[in-house]
Amino acid sequence: MTLESRTPRAVWKADEAEFFLSHLREWARAPALNPRLDPTQKFAFYLSAFLNAAYSSREILRLEAIQSRAISRGAFDDWKPKWEESLGDDDARIWRLGLDARGQEVHRRGAKTVPVSGIVQVRPQQLWRGGIYGSIVTGPPSVPIGPLLDDETAAALASIVPLQLATLQHFEVEGERLEVVTVCTRYLSLLRKYIADFDALVNPREPKGAP
Q: The whole model's pTM is what?
């Protein structure tokens, strides 16, 4: 967040969304953190929190922009669809999906996800502790860090990085399955661009080297 930002609360809510996204990525550790919750529940809770924080950021941007008189209500409502139209087709789909998934989460029976199992790359969660017998490696189970791998890619990586079987949640859009964490990561990136582009609109900066 910069000192020139006219919408600090929108930035704050985007940071909140990033906080929940970081937990969403680590959902496989749910049993160790809370034995009463299985990984699917933990994942669903963090997904709900992420979607709502991201939605709040979108709404608060408009509210703060108007209340701070950075822009008029009509001018903002004209700018927003133009910004959305400037997105490429794939980014536009992710932007709409974030809003649609939040609508399902709040107004229907929850965001719809589909579990898909396969081979993934993992990151070992290791903690090195010293002791009288030397260093000891401890930590919770490994955590999936990527999308499902096809057979050829998995075979090529098998001798290089740790792999394991995992079940990852996917959104289903027009018959295509999109891995949830990947979608949310891209959605957050677009959200930050949305805020930054608005900030640049109302706080134009002098080009470097200008007198």
A: 0.80
